[in-house]
Amino acid sequence: MKQVVFISGKGGTGKSTLVSSLSILVENKMIADCDVDAPNLHILLKGDVQKKDDFFGAKEAVIDPELCVKCGLCEETCRFDAIEECKVSVMKCEGCGACVLVCPQNAIKLEEVKTGETYVSKTNRGTFSNALLDIGAEGSGKLVTEVRKNVNNYKKKEEWVLIDGSPGIGCSVIASMTGADAVIAVSEPTKSGKSDLERVLGVARYFEIPAFVCINKYNLNLQVTKEIEAFCEQEGFPVIGKIPFDETVVRALREFKTPVEAGNSVVTQEIKNIWSRINDEMKKLESVS
Ligand code: SF4
Ligand code: SF4
After folding, report:
1. Domain 2-47+124-288: what homologous superfamily?
2. What is the value of pTM for the model shown?
3. Ligand 1 near 62 CB (within 6 A)
4. How far is CA 275 from each of CA 11, 228, 283, rounded to the nearest angstrom?
């Protein structure tokens, strides 16, 4: 099974729109949404959840009042001011465990805290794995790893997995990319878009994952599009697609439809071309490995 991850330096570049369009065009695949902070692919895929699991991504201290002798050592030790009058503030506790070590009564334990949920859904485009991190919770990288584990656990004989990666360059992006066969960085032609693209391509290069570039809404700023192409050529990242801006795509998204479902022929053809180029690039990579 070949894993292709779609990433972007920031949110809103159109990578989920591209992945959801490809989920219609590509045969024999699974789909995963690794944007666990703000997932939205499920809105376009409209699947039926077959399996839902709680995710425990953090720990917090719990004091047993029966054992506590109110010596105050834990309160003095906690660097996060999370303990007051022998009570732990859930919002402040970082789960570091320092209070557990100093308590002379063994009155403090670290307990796992639920910080999100994972889902495996059946859709008419294939099995879909995704997750949702609770608001303000930590551990997005670990939760992404769970999403990818579910891909492995539920795969049958699919040839591809299309992964909608997290935006940015943090640990959830790294967790999205780990072990992938190729990365497709989706950018838009703005100065900040170019800067974000450069950073995210740097992450792919660091982890030695072959990376390719798609410029979305390229015709909104042809000058910056040229600058992105020049950068990609200089750095050895092939540009495998340029999708034009089209009002019908915006209208389709308002109705929770992909450009392919909306019947936009120009955008659909370019997305088909992108998939064909991804295939060609993957074959080239296989032939040299
Ligand atoms: S260190 Fe242990 S015994 Fe002392 S106040 Fe904290 S919980 Fe209670
Ligand atoms: S686990 Fe760490 S952060 Fe939480 S209460 Fe204990 S010392 Fe403070």
Report:
1. P-loop containing nucleotide triphosphate hydrolases (3.40.50.300)
2. 0.86
3. no
4. 22, 20, 12
